[in-house]
Amino acid sequence: TRTRNTDTTRYGHGDTRERGIMEIVFFYNIPISMHWKGLWALFGYHGDVIDAFIPSKRCRNGKRFGFVRFSNERDALRAIVRLNGFFLLGKRIGVKMASYNGRRPF
């Protein structure tokens, strides 16, 4: 069953099982007008998206960023290869595996 968080920037299946960190993709430099629904559709074209999250804060350089969790590593890698450097509404987005620094990205 899908659940929607009260935060309008996150949507997911509501699955609380622990997932591997390698399935989480970090993306940055997304346009301010882009909503998580559009990102879900964009990343979902390349694999099975479990969760998408865009925090309200920005990177140190002022760019918008977020995370997408895929159901498997293969889909995450496919999205990285296909979308890194992709132009989205006039901005070149960056996409890579999320780094793990001792806490979960989301």
UniProtKB/TrEMBL annotation:
<dbReference type="GO" id="GO:0008380">
    <property type="term" value="P:RNA splicing"/>
</dbReference>
<dbReference type="GO" id="GO:0003723">
    <property type="term" value="F:RNA binding"/>
</dbReference>
<dbReference type="InterPro" id="IPR035979">
    <property type="entry name" value="RBD_domain_sf"/>
</dbReference>
<keyword id="KW-0507">mRNA processing</keyword>
<protein>
    <recommendedName>
        <fullName>RRM domain-containing protein</fullName>
    </recommendedName>
</protein>
<feature type="domain" description="RRM">
    <location>
        <begin position="23"/>
        <end position="100"/>
    </location>
</feature>
<keyword id="KW-0694">RNA-binding</keyword>
<dbReference type="InterPro" id="IPR000504">
    <property type="entry name" value="RRM_dom"/>
</dbReference>
<keyword id="KW-0508">mRNA splicing</keyword>
<dbReference type="GO" id="GO:0006397">
    <property type="term" value="P:mRNA processing"/>
</dbReference>
<dbReference type="Pfam" id="PF00076">
    <property type="entry name" value="RRM_1"/>
</dbReference>
<dbReference type="InterPro" id="IPR050907">
    <property type="entry name" value="SRSF"/>
</dbReference>
<dbReference type="GO" id="GO:0005681">
    <property type="term" value="C:spliceosomal complex"/>
</dbReference>
<dbReference type="InterPro" id="IPR012677">
    <property type="entry name" value="Nucleotide-bd_a/b_plait_sf"/>
</dbReference>
<keyword id="KW-0747">Spliceosome</keyword>
